């Protein structure tokens, strides 16, 4: 396991202690595995033994047999790792045989877990180009640069920032873009900011595409079918403060609370009133334009004090005692809390979208609002996108369906997260390429991830415009219609044009979605005699 570069080991394990009991249970249930993503990234929640964790930490930056893992280790395999010191070395390596390109493993669905294929460990390599062009207000980024490195470079040296990003900053920038990583609000999908990119084709030669080129809108977000991408150029924006309001209210008040905001992220407590559930809303507004998001006043008196005391302790109980989740949320529903917090964000804050208070959340104790939104540590995550206007109905549907599964021992984790993507993006496979969308994130114990896949399929039966999150959805042929078969065919034409040798590989989940043949056989398939 690779620790984040800039976080002390001790503090990192404190932040991960939330996950350990869940992962220990998962290991007892038989999920012993390992993790990965595209050229993309994440901290790996681990159900490994201490010796295995140490072995993984020692392996970072080295070549040879390594485990490739998806977050929470539901998907994993052991393969040969290569760490490209520079572009020339990378070009030579991809000419030697079948390969994939790996970043920091932010995927939950194992999109880059491919057995028997050499893994190019891009985030650990030496492709660290990082330059800013003041004339065009763009930044050029190499394949080994993390989101954190990029944000610090732009902020500290040029007073600039990204239009949007995900909330995990150790992932590689290029990997985050390739897998559709998004925040919320304007220009929500990171890949929408790409103006130029360069990749190596099957012979190791450079190919550069610019916005407006016929193939650009496909390659800018290709979920691993075009790789390695070695450099890209991104638009940037000035650093600026925002008015951030975090409110606790009801889903029926969502429209009222969002009024005047430019970005909204809301979390629903799934075991409160199914017809009007309790929500925690985080809305951003510009400081000098329009109307601030309205908000409920702080609760006062004895009931308000008790509500704050209870909420600070609820999240801890929620993590460790799932059977108490429903009664505790019913109690919160009965309290009918109306609270809010207003903050003007620091222009230099790297993660104001997810944590509006100054400073990085990993450097200070979490507040109750941030705790409820910090879903990364709560277990297995499955996500998909639905049309924005359908999001409240989809959430209510999920609440009803999930509650009906309680007798089977299934519980959603503490929240259903909804991130709003109100604009339309340029890349064809961006979530909001056709219309405004909402990202629905569901969380459960790793042992229960199959129930999350069932909920996804149920939603898709009623909402055919559901689109995949390439690192979190259960991928498969059911997404072809919403992605557009003509677009998928065009992407594969581009892939075959640049990689006719057939050495760039992708997982069976992507192969099934693209309908490009049978999956590569893993050791179990070979050992059992299922394949020759």
Automatic annotation (TrEMBL):
* All residue ranges annotated as the FAD-binding PCMH-type domain in the record: 74-239
Q: Which Gene3D superfamilies match?
A: 3.30.465.10
Database matches in InterPro entries: FAD-bd_PCMH, FAD-bd_PCMH-like_sf, FAD-bd_PCMH_sub2, FAD_lactone_oxidase-like, Oxid_FAD_bind_N
Gene Ontology MF annotations:
D-arabinono-1,4-lactone oxidase activity; FAD binding
Q: Record keywords: Flavoprotein included?
A: yes
Q: Which Pfam families match?
A: FAD_binding_4
Q: Domain of life, per the record?
A: Bacteria
Keywords linked to the UniProt accession: FAD, Flavoprotein
Q: Does the record carry Acyltransferase as a key word?
A: no
Q: Which PANTHER family does the record associate with it?
A: D-ARABINONO-1,4-LACTONE OXIDASE, L-GULONOLACTONE OXIDASE
From the Swiss-Prot or TrEMBL record, give the protein name.
Answer: FAD-binding protein
Name the source organism.
Erythrobacter aureus
Starting at the broadest rank, the lineage of the source organism is: Bacteria, Pseudomonadati, Pseudomonadota, Alphaproteobacteria, Sphingomonadales
């Amino acid at each position: 396991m690779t620790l984040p570069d800039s976080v002390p080991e001790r503090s990192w394990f404190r932040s991960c202690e939330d996950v350990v009991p869940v992962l220990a249970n998962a290991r007892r249930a038989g999920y012993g595995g390992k993790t990965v993503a595209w050229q993309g990234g994440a901290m790996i929640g681990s159900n490994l033994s201490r010796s295995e964790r140490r072995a993984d930490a020692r392996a970072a930056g080295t070549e040879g047999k390594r485990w490739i893992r998806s977050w929470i280790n539901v998907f994993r395999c052991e393969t040969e790792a290569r760490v490209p010191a520079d572009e020339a070395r990378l070009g030579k390596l991809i000419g030697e045989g079948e390969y994939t390109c790996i970043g920091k493993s932010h995927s939950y669905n194992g999109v880059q877990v491919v057995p028997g294929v050499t893994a190019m460990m891009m985030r650990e390599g030496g492709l660290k180009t990082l330059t800013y062009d003041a004339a065009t207000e763009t930044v050029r980024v190499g394949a080994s640069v993390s989101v954190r490195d990029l944000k610090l470079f732009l902020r500290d040296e040029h007073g600039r920032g990204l239009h949007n990003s995900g909330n995990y900053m150790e992932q590689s920038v290029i990997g985050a873009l390739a897998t559709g990583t998004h925040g919320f609000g304007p220009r929500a999908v990171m890949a929408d900011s790409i103006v130029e990119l360069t990749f190596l084709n099957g012979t190791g030669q450079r190919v550069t595409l610019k916005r407006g080129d016929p193939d650009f809108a496909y390659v800018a977000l290709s979920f691993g079918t075009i790789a390695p991408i070695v450099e890209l150029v991104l638009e940037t924006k000035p650093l600026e403060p925002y008015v951030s309001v975090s409110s606790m209210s009801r889903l029926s008040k969502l429209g009222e609370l969002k009024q005047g905001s430019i970005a909204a992220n809301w979390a629903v407590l799934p075991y409160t009133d199914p017809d009007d559930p309790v929500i925690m809303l985080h809305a951003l507004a510009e400081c000098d334009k329009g109307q601030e998001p309205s908000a409920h006043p702080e609760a006062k008196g004895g009931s308000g004090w008790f509500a704050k005391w209870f909420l600070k302790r609820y999240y801890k109980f929620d993590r460790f005692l799932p059977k108490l989740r429903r009664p505790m949320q019913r109690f919160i529903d009965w309290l009918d809390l109306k609270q809010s917090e207003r903050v003007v964000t620091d222009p230099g804050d790297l993660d104001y979208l997810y944590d509006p208070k100054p400073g990085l959340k990993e450097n200070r104790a979490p507040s109750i609002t941030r705790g409820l939104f910090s879903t990364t540590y709560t277990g297995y995550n499955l996500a998909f996108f639905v049309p924005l206007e359908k999001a409240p109905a989809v959430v209510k549907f999920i609440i009803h369906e999930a509650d009906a599964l309680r007798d089977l021992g299934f519980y959603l984790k503490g929240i259903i997260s909804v991130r709003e993507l109100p604009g339309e993006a340029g890349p064809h496979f961006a979530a909001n390429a056709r219309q405004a969308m909402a990202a629905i994130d569901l969380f459960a114990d790793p042992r229960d991830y199959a129930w999350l896949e069932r909920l996804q399929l149920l939603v898709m039966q009623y909402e055919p415009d559901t689109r995949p999150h390439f690192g979190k959805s259960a991928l498969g042929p059911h997404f072809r219609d919403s992605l557009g078969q003509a677009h998928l065919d065009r992407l594969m034409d581009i892939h075959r044009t640049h990689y006719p040798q057939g050495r760039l590989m992708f997982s069976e989940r992507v192969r099934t979605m693209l309908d490009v043949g049978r999956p590569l056989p893993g050791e179990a398939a070979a050992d059992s005699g299922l394949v020759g």
